[in-house]
Design brief:
Layout: E1 6-10, E2 15-19, E3 24-28, E4 36-38, E5 49-53, E6 59-64, E7 71-76, E8 81-87, E9 91-92, E10 100-101, E11 105-114, E12 118-124, E13 134-138, E14 143-147, E15 154-159, H1 163-168, E16 171-173, E17 178-183, H2 193-212, H3 221-233, E18 265-266, H4 267-279, H5 283-296, E19 307-308, E20 319-320, E21 334-335, H6 346-361, H7 366-386, H8 405-424, H9 428-448, E22 450-451, E23 456-457, H10 484-497, E24 498-499, E25 502-503, E26 518-519, H11 520-532, H12 536-547, E27 559-560, E28 567-568, H13 574-596
Antiparallel strand pairs: 1-2, 2-3, 3-4, 5-12, 6-7, 7-8, 8-11, 9-10, 11-17, 12-16, 13-14, 14-15, 15-17, 18-19, 20-21, 22-23, 24-25, 26-27, 27-28
Length: about 600
């Protein structure tokens, strides 16, 4: 059984996955949603990779350099050892400006640890998703890979060892520190091992400073920080967009076709990430994301999509890469995502929740506050017009539209937060006007969302199917944790959707049959709900157990297999890591409160 035993490196423009054995198996350049240059994770024969091949007596260990996104993989046979330090450069310009240097580069710094280790290099880029042949040639002071047909693309490799040995895969004996620099661009300055070492140290300082600016917690501090570092890597500096994950088409279940491209900005996921990042001290992320929102909803009549490209693209046309076999032969491999056309009413509430937080916590400029107020009124108009209509729901059902309770709940949240914003900025004429809509939605949910026979709020109006998203009714302020209906919903949802300590999203049939893997964030939601209704010991036990299912570096994907506990789905997943932080903070606050009194 394989697991998603990868580390992520990145610089907020792109990111790469490095396997537990040090193989670079996923990289898109120059930015996150560009075509891949290495994609072995999606096809072991055709995808391409950059690996260090050692004799079988070498053992591998892997770790992050503490409080950074720099990954170190050590190879040792007991006598001879070396370490591959992988990172994408990110640091402030040394002239004292706020400008951050984040080139489309990967540096692999090879540090001699002991003896005289020997290895071969397998360097095999396959540009443009390997749809056309990639030619790799040795030039004067670099290796150039490029395409001759189809879309033109190229890649450069710099190193201080014999270029022909690299390309031909000949054995190398390490006698000193060396470097490899993969770049989308041809370099203007001479590349040396000293320059790579300087980039390593500057990048290390950047991440240490960023970590120092992250709030500390009395419990689970290491897990919170690692998740925060992951979420930072999933942000795109140029626009403020937040990606759901850096991969495409890693399957929710091996051999099935629930494979999607997650290299886009879902407003729902991104808004939740930004809310959490703000709570742990990173306010600039919120400012950049709100500017992203202002830009994509620039006109009052703009249709708000559920998701956008990270460069603010609105058309995310989906196509299949039929030449790729897929992760463990789980085809199809998709790029683009047709879900951008869907109607999902929950995005309005989640977006308004972030806008309300912005007004509460920060001084916003007059221009931004006016723009956000305009967006608020636009959202209210859309919700008032559409909340009674069915939609695709939070889980993006593709075949039909239904009256999903979570969508209704988030329509209520949208109006509730809009009312609160109106109060904050003294626009009291809107409070009474919008309050009527808020009350009408609440009445509708209580009447049609509750199932007396099941004794729970259900997935959709008029059905008995349960859904993990109803666990969020309390956290959004719709219902009190002590309300008997919420207590009953939590207990019923746990009973019906929990299996081996993990949660289904739902168990009813969808577009692709019956779900068969656990959706990681739903287990975090259950833990939070149990804690809220007073089942704190049980919640803590489930949380501690769930943390053991991360990979060797503390990273989570979207899904977990109920039986084997292997990670599945796109990776690393923003949804999972934001929920980890939120849940850990809940326990940490409890401990701090006890200590205070």
């Amino acid at each position: 059984m394989n697991n998603l035993d990868y580390g992520i490196i990145g610089n907020c423009h792109s990111a790469a996955l490095v396997s537990k054995s040090g193989a670079l198996e996923w990289l898109c350049l120059p930015i996150f949603d560009s075509a891949s240059v290495f994609a072995k994770i999606l096809d072991r024969e055709k995808g391409g990779s950059f690996e260090f091949i050692t004799m079988p007596d070498y053992q591998c260990t892997q770790r992050y350099i503490s409080r950074t996104n720099i990954l170190a993989t050590k190879y040792s046979n007991g006598v001879d050892s070396f370490e591959v330090i992988d990172f994408m450069p990110r640091y402030h310009a040394h002239n004292g400006s706020d400008q951050v240097y984040s080139p489309p580069d990967v540096v692999r710094y090879i540090k001699l640890k002991s003896g005289k280790p020997r290895f071969r290099i397998h360097y095999d880029p396959r540009l443009e998703y390997a749809e056309r042949e990639t030619i790799t040639e040795v030039r004067n002071n670099y290796v150039k890979s490029f395409t001759r047909s189809g879309v033109y693309d190229s890649l450069y490799l710099y190193t201080d060892i014999d270029l022909n040995k690299v390309v031909n895969g000949e054995e190398v004996q390490l006698e000193r520190d060396i470097y490899f620099l993969i770049s989308y661009n041809q370099k203007l300055l001479k590349q040396t091992v000293k320059r790579s070492y300087l980039k390593l140290q500057r990048t290390k300082v950047y991440w240490l400073n960023w970590s120092e600016d992250t709030h500390r917690f009395s419990d689970y501090d290491d897990e919170i920080l690692r998740s925060a570092l992951v979420l930072k890597l999933l942000t795109f500096d140029k626009t403020g967009a937040v990606l759901a994950a850096i991969t495409t088409s890693l399957p929710e279940t091996i051999g099935e076709i629930r494979n999607w491209d997650y290299r886009f900005c879902w407003l729902r996921d991104a808004s939740m990430v930004i809310k959490i990042m703000t709570q742990i001290g990173h306010w600039k992320s919120a400012e950049r994301f709100l500017n992203f929102i202002i830009d994509i909803i620039s006109d009052k009549d703009d249709k708000i999509q559920i998701m956008y490209g990270i460069k603010k693209d609105k058309n995310l046309r989906e196509r299949i890469l039929s030449h790729f076999s897929g992760y463990e032969d789980s085809a199809p491999v998709r790029v683009g995502n047709a879900a951008y056309r869907q109607k999902q009413h929950d995005i309005y509430g989640i977006l308004m929740d972030v806008i309300y937080q912005q007004f509460c916590l920060f001084e916003v400029s007059l221009q931004n506050s006016e723009e956000l107020w305009t967006i608020t009124r636009s959202i209210v108009r859309v919700v008032q017009k559409n909340w009674r209509n069915p939609d695709r729901g939070i889980w993006e059902i593709r075949t039909d539209q239904r009256h999903f309770l979570f969508s209704k709940l988030l329509c209520w949240v949208a109006i509730d937060r809009a009312v609160k914003v109106a109060r904050l900025i003294n626009r009291h004429e809107y409070v009474e006007q919008w309050g009527g809509t808020r009350d009408a939605i609440a009445k509708d949910i209580m009447k049609k969302g509750w199932n007396e026979e099941v004794q729970a709020f259900t997935q959709t109006y008029g059905t008995k199917d349960l859904d993990a998203s109803t666990l969020l009714m309390e956290s959004y302020g719709f219902i009190d944790a002590a309300d008997p209906r919420y207590l009953s919903t939590v207990k019923a949802t746990q009973e019906k959707l929990s299996r081996n300590g993990l949660m289904y999203r739902y168990k009813n049939r969808d577009d692709f049959g019956l779900p068969s893997s656990s959706f990681t964030i739903c287990t975090f939601w259950l833990i939070r709900a149990l804690n809220k209704i007073g089942e704190r010991a049980q919640a803590r036990e489930l949380f501690d157990k769930l943390l053991t299912y991360s990979n060797h570096l503390g990273l989570f994907s979207e899904d977990i297999d109920f039986e084997s506990k292997r990670l599945l789905g796109n990776f690393p997943q923003a949804y999972s890591h934001l929920a980890l932080i939120e849940t850990a903070m809940l326990f940490s606050r409890d401990i701090e409160l006890k200590n205070r009194f």
